[in-house]
Amino acid sequence: MKATPPCAASRLLVALLSTTLAWPALVPAAFAQSPGSAAAASAPLAQEQLGALVAPIALYPDAVLAQLLMASTYPLEVVEAGQWLQSHAALTGAALSSALKDQNWDASVKSLVSFPQVLQMMSSQLTWTQQLGDAFLSQQKDVMAAVQVLRAKAQKAGALKSSSQQTVSTPTQNGQTVIVIAPANPQVVYVPAYNPTVVYGGWPYPAYPPVAYYPPGYVAGASLLSFGAGMAVGAALWGGCHWGGGGSVTVNNNTYNQFNNNNNRNWSNQNKNGGNSNWNHDPQHRGNVPYSNPNLQKKYGANQQQADQQRNQAKQQQENRGATGGERQGAQSGQVKQQENRDANRVDRQAEQDRNSTATKAQKQQQEKRQAEGDKREAERQGQRDEAERKEGGEREGGREERGGGGHRR
Fold first, then answer.
1. Which candidate, 230, 182, 228, places its Cα nearest to that of 66?
2. First to last CA, the chain
3. Residue 29 confidence (pLDDT)
4. Integer Cα distance of 102 and 100 in angstroms
5. Which range marks the domain in which residue 63 is found?
6. How far apart (Å, rounded) are the C-alpha atoms in residues 54 and 185?
7. Residue 384: inside a domain, yes or no?
């Protein structure tokens, strides 16, 4: 059986996920609307329902929360990014940025690659991700208000407070006291893990239980909030929350431009003006996932077919670049192999020369050693001869003395 090309397998998976996300039977009973009722589907979610949706993420740092909410409106890209990250988990720094340039995901989705715990949660809880994204698109202010309600409960329960990982403050924005969560060190971000049924002082909406997600290695301890390793994210953190005046998510344009210039191959001449701006949903990154709310479908769905075509064209261009890149890589690989062979030959020649040189040196040393031993033996023999001559001379001298003495006696 012929193997399915990776790009085709990816498109097949996307199609299956699109069907899964659109299938109403997968919506939890707590959030389900009356079957066939467009009016019910268009009705806004109550605070209790929104609270259940945001409970797993309400205590995240503001910037991470903002970018997560943006990315939740693009569930297919979240799944693609989650799978991609699993197969590229070893990449970091410049290598990671270079690899991300070949992906056409929205910047909010790309940014979550720097937060594996968050991306894994969103891709594994896909129905929740789509529900959160649709709720955020249709009731942005209500979603932000639900976050503040839960933060106040967590603060009252003693779970939400400043630490070495985060700073919790209560500024006043447009006459409203809000709870802001920011990294203690702007260059290192910690994402908390917690049990949403406990951290808020007991879950206040029993009819709408929250989704609970625990990252790998999570162990509930004495602290209601636990933190894993901090993430050095650099320009990947460019979102923000504007709580006053009803609540919205914003984009720090300078950091956003820097992130996209580093991680987006087609970003030239798309820089936003400096300062902050409000975030806007881009249906082009929605793929063919329908919006569960008819009002959203009417608002964004008209452009979805055109956006989907553009997305497919972009994917095809990416695949073509991959094929061309494969040819270049093959040629480069041949050149590299030739160079490796030349290098190996040089190494062999050098090794042979070294061996010959070593042998020559060994022979010379052996000769010198033999010469030294010969000289030593000759010196010893000469010494023995000298000693023998001295003894012989002494004996002759002694004989003469004896003979001379005998004659005197006569």
1. 182
2. 132
3. 45
4. 5
5. 16-21+45-216+224-298
6. 25
7. no
Tokens encoding 63:
């910037």
Question: Do 133 and 74 meet the contact criterion of CB atoms below 8 Å apart?
Answer: yes
| Residue pLDDT, tens place only, 179-236 | 999 999 988 999 999 999 999 998 999 999 998 777 666 556 556 788 878 887 777 8
- The token duo for 312 is 């497919």
Distance CA 197, CA 3 (A): 46
Tokens standing for residue 201: 């002082």
Predicted pLDDT at 24? 37
User: Which among 62, 82, 64, 85 is positioned nearest to 74, based on CA atoms?
Assistant: 82
Determine contact, residues 118/332, Cβ cutoff 8 Å. Answer: no
**Residue 53 near residue 128 (C-beta atoms within 8 A):** yes
User: pLDDT per residue over 9-43, tens digit each?
Assistant: 454 555 555 544 543 333 444 454 444 555 666 78
HSE at residue 254, side-chain half, CA atoms within 13 A, is 2
Please give the C-alpha separations between residue 128 and each of 21, 121, 123, 143, 410, in angstroms, as whole numbers.
10, 10, 10, 14, 142
Residue 258 vs residues 236, 255, 266, 336: alpha-carbon distances, Å: 9, 5, 13, 34
Reported as type and span, the H/E element at residue 318 is: helix 304-409
Q: Is the alpha carbon torsion for 303, 245, 48, 52 positive or negative?
A: positive
The amino acid that residue 212 corresponds to is A
| DSSP string for residues in 246-293 | G-EEEEEHHHHHHHHHHH-TT-TT-PPPSSEEE----GGGGTTPPPSS
| Structural domain includes residue 328 | no
Residue type present at position 103: Q
Tokens linked to 351:
């090794």
Residue 103 lies in a domain: yes
The one-letter amino acid at 261: N
Residue 182 pairs in a beta bridge with 167
Domain count within the chain? 1
With respect to residue 229, please indicate whether it lies within any of the assigned structural domains: yes
